């Protein structure tokens, strides 16, 4: 268990800046998820922490110890790769024992630690098999076991579930969550899947183009996104955006800045204004989550239904406004609308955001 | 192109490649006479051949009225191999019979007498069966002289290993060549593959300045023709040899026994030369294989704390077995069959000659003894075949299965 601190971490490949000036603090035993679209640098950031890539500038501390000049094996980390990266010519036992063997641990200690890890993961019966004889989920478990055996300060997971099928992904996700509670080790987890991020994380780090967009607890990010990107990235279906102008920046209220919005036939007052340096008359966007829209014949948001998706637990309706802006409504109830029909929706201004 | 046509072409190619080998093996297994008198393709079917046999031994002079015997027993009496079997077709009768035109006179005739027919031999009735059994009956007990008869026998195919026994055990040349070839080939395969594996790993996975340029240079060395390099290489070896000779003279008391001279052409010079000329291709092939191993495996090993040497010995080598095996077969064949390097760089001492040179010398000494030449050739072919078949099990499919996704 250890704290991890990143100070002004930057990485560039040639002239391309992949990571730009990232500052981050991760507490003891915290489960941190790096999330972002592909190419946002989340995996690179993980590899910088692991030592597989060298920093261009900045400092990284693990357990309050600068690790910039240490090789990966000396940083007190263990990594689980997306592609498992098992040693195909070794049995599961030897895969897990490899790092201990290299450290020169005694045979007895190696056996004890491997068996302990295998017990945690309930895979004692797999120890004598080769990776080729394992299923995808079992391979991923071996990869996790290989990390556990090293007893690291920090666990690093690089998209560990993206090679598994949907059902297995869910099971393994639950297992990782349990495992984290059991081991209580600091964990950094990279994913592009927001569901994994929301369910697993104590703290989510949203990245875009190598920059940190927002850091915070999952619900904090969901309810108070720091910018349009975070608002649009988290939540499914995606947040709806309507273009317009800021008509009244009404100053600070209890929840922060507030403003009024006008555009696309909408007039809304007292909306949380996220962007801080906007003046009256500036172009802004109104963000409303599909879940926060409800059927209301007098509601301000009107559109033509283009598609109705029944997901069983949820109904998602795709609409298009008269101005041509597409938007979605999601409801746990069975909405009585059909394609081609006009429908109006209302929303609570307190659940909307202005960007 | 239709399927059948493709199959015909394929079969044709196979026949063209296999035929010389079949010819070689067949000829080496035939008797000297057979290999000299008829082509190898006649060896598999019964062939009519003439054989002369004596009715009985010359020292046997006891009178008899009926003698029975067997033509094959008579023919095979003094043979240890290539025994004649088959069917007796006919016997060429040469002798005098009463002339029907001139009563009281006889005339000399030659005619073919077939099985079951009676023929007059020295006044007795000689009858033979196609199984070779014959009876020779006289009206009263007589002790005739033995008679040589020419039998035409529809002879069954017959093979023997006499030629192999002769080249392997009656003369030291082929066994010596076999041993010399092994002495040259085994180190000349192991040394380059060891060096190349290390180099290939470095070129594939270690970062050092000028790596790509160095690799290009190594690969471009493949175009240097061996023959072109003989002169400088020989000069180098003779330089080293004279230096070693002086060192020997200085350090030991070899001058007393006049054994100071270190030869410039030796097995060691062959090892060095074959290693040098084999390395560029070896590095190229192995590097291309090793660079294709999943990067995550090596990264995982780095996180597990493996040094470059550990990664090399514990991961790269076990996972590169198919590539190592295919290159070692390649190098083994090339060195085993090499004539020109051995001729220029190798020792000229008769006992140290490698197989291809020995074969070339046999062409001169054995000239028309095709069965011996072919036996030597087959022995030299058998070794690479055994090597190839025994290496076969290292061409493992799916060695990387289970390591990474899709692997």
Structure class of chain B:
alpha+beta
Average pLDDT of chain B, rounded to a whole number, is 88
Proportion of strand residues of chain B: 15-25%
Topology order of chain B in helix (H) and strand (E) letters: HHEEHEEEEEEHHHHHHHHHHHH
CATH superfamily of the largest domain in chain B: MetI-like
Number of strands of chain B: 8
Number of helices of chain B: 15
**Quick one: CATH class of the largest domain in chain B?**
Mainly Alpha
Give a short account of the largest sheet of chain A. Answer: 6 strands, mixed
**Biggest sheet record of chain B:** 4 strands, antiparallel
Q: What number of domains of chain B?
A: 3
Number of strands of chain A: 20
Number of helices of chain A: 8
Structural class of chain A: alpha+beta
Query: Which residues of chain B sit in consecutive blocks of at least 5 with pLDDT less than 50?
Result: none
Percentage of residues assigned to helices of chain A:
10-25%
Could you say which overall geometry of chain B the principal axes of the C-alpha atoms support?
A: elongated
Percent strand of chain A equals: 35-45%
**CATH fold topology of the largest domain in chain B:** MetI-like fold
- Say what oligomer this is: heterodimer
Report the largest inter-chain contact: A-B, 33 and 25 residues
Description:
The complex is a heterodimer of chains A (355) and B (407). Chain A has 355 residues and is an alpha+beta fold. Chain A is 24% helix and 37% strand. Chain A has eight helices and 20 strands. Chain A has helices at 42-50, 92-103, 107-120, 136-149, 166-183, 194-200, 218-223, 228-233; strands at 4-13, 16-26, 31-35, 57-62, 65-66, 77-80, 154-158, 186-191, 203-208, 211-216, 240-253, 256-263, 266-273, 283-288, 293-295, 301-310, 315-321, 326-331, 342-347, 353-354. In chain A, the strands form four sheets. A six-stranded mixed β-sheet of chain A has the order 6-7-8-3-9-10, sandwiched between helices. A five-stranded mixed beta barrel of chain A has the order 11-12-13-20-14. The radius of gyration of chain A is 24 Å and the shape is elongated. The two termini of chain A are 39 Å apart. Chain B has three domains: 3-41, no CATH class; 46-156, no CATH class; 164-399, MetI-like (MetI-like fold), CATH 1.10.3720. Chain B starts with a helix and ends in a 16-residue tail after the last helix. Chain B is elongated. Chain B is an alpha+beta fold. The mean pLDDT of chain B is 88. Chain B has a four-stranded antiparallel β-sheet with strand order 1-8-3-4. In chain B, strands 2-7-6-5 form a four-stranded antiparallel β-sheet. Chain B has 15 helices and eight strands. In chain B, helix 5 (173-205) packs parallel to helix 9, helix 12 packs antiparallel against helix 15 (370-391) and helix 14 (355-366) runs antiparallel to helix 15. Chain B has helices spanning 3-29, 32-37, 71-76, 162-169, 173-205, 211-220, 226-251, 254-257, 267-290, 295-303, 308-319, 321-337, 340-345, 355-366, 370-391, and strands spanning 47-54, 64-70, 86-98, 106-114, 118-121, 124-128, 133-142, 148-155. At the A-B interface, strand 6, helix 2 and helix 4 of A face helix 10 and helix 11 of B.
């Amino acid at each position: 268990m250890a704290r991890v601190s990143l100070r002004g971490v930057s990485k560039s490949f040639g002239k391309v800046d992949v990571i730009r000036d990232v500052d981050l603090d991760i507490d003891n035993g915290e489960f941190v998820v790096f999330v972002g679209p592909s190419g946002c640098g989340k995996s690179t950031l993980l590899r910088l922490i692991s030592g597989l890539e060298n920093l261009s500038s900045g400092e990284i501390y693990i357990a309050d110890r600068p690790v910039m000049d240490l090789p990966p094996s000396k940083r007190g980390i263990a990594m689980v790769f997306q592609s498992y990266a098992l040693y195909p010519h070794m049995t599961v036992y030897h895969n897990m024992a490899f790092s201990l063997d290299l450290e020169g641990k005694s045979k007895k200690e190696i056996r004890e630690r491997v068996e302990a890890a295998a017990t945690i993961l309930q895979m004692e019966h797999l120890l004598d098999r080769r990776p080729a004889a394992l299923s995808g989920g079992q391979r991923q478990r071996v990869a996790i076991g290989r990390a556990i055996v090293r007893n690291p300060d920090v666990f690093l997971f690089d998209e560990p579930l993206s090679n598994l099928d949907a059902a297995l992904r869910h099971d393994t996700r639950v297992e990782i969550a349990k495992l984290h509670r059991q081991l209580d080790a600091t964990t950094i987890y990279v994913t592009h899947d927001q569901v994994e991020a929301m369910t697993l994380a104590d703290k989510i780090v949203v990245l875009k183009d190598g920059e940190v967009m927002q850091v915070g607890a999952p619900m904090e990010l969901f309810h108070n996104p720091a910018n349009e990107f975070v608002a649009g990235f988290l939540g499914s279906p995606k947040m709806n955006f309507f273009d317009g102008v800021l008509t009244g920046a009404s100053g600070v209220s209890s929840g922060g800045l507030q403003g009024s919005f006008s555009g696309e036939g909408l007039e809304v007052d007292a909306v949380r204004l996220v962007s801080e340096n906007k003046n009256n008359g500036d172009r802004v966007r109104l963000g409303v989550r599909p879940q926060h829209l409800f059927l209301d014949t007098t509601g301000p948001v009107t559109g033509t239904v283009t598609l109705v998706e029944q997901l069983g637990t949820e109904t998602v309706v795709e609409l298009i406004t008269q101005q041509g802006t597409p938007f979605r409504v999601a409801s746990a109830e069975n909405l009585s609308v059909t394609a081609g029909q006009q429908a109006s929706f209302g929303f609570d201004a307190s659940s909307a955001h202005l960007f | 192109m239709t399927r059948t046509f493709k199959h015909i072409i394929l079969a044709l190619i196979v026949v063209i490649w296999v035929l010389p080998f079949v010819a070689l093996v067949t000829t080496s297994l035939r008797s000297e006479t057979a290999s000299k008198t008829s082509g190898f393709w006649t060896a598999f079917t019964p062939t009519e051949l003439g054989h002369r046999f004596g009715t009985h031994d010359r020292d046997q002079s006891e009178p008899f009225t009926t003698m029975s015997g067997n033509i094959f027993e008579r023919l095979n009496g003094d043979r240890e191999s290539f025994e004649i079997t088959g069917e007796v077709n006919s016997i060429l009768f040469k002798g005098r019979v009463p002339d029907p035109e001139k009563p009281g006179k006889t005339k000399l005739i030659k005619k073919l007498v077939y099985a079951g027919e009676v023929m007059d031999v020295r006044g007795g009735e000689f009858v033979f069966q196609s199984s070779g059994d014959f009876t020779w009956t006289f009206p009263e007990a007589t002790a005739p002289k033995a008679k040589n008869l020419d039998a035409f026998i529809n002879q069954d195919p017959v093979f023997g290993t006499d030629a192999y026994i002769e080249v392997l055990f009656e003369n030291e040349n082929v066994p010596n060549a076999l041993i010399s070839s092994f002495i040259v080939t085994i180190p000349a395969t192991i040394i380059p593959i060891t060096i190349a594996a290390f180099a290939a790993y470095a070129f594939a996975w270690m970062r050092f300045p000028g790596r790509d340029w160095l690799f290009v240079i190594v690969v471009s060395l493949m175009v240097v023709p061996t023959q072109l390099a003989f002169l400088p290489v020989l000069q180098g070896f003779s330089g080293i040899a004279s230096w070693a000779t002086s060192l020997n003279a200085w350090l030991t008391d070899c001058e007393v026994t006049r054994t100071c001279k270190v030869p410039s052409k030796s097995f060691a010079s062959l090892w060095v030369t074959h290693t040098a000329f084999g390395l560029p291709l070896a590095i190229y092939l192995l590097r291309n294989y090793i660079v294709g191993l999943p990067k995550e495996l090596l990264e995982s090993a780095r996180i597990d704390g493996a040094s470059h040497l550990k990664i090399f010995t514990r991961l790269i080598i076990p996972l590169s077995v198919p590539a190592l095996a295919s290159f070692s077969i390649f190098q083994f064949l090339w060195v085993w069959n090499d004539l020109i390097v051995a001729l220029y760089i190798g020792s000229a001492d008769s006992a140290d000659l490698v197989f291809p040179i020995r074969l070339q010398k046999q062409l001169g000494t054995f000239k028309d003894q095709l069965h011996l030449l072919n036996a030597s050739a087959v022995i030299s072919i058998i070794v690479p075949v055994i090597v190839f078949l025994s290496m076969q099990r290292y061409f493992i499919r799916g060695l990387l299965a289970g390591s990474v996704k899709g692997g």
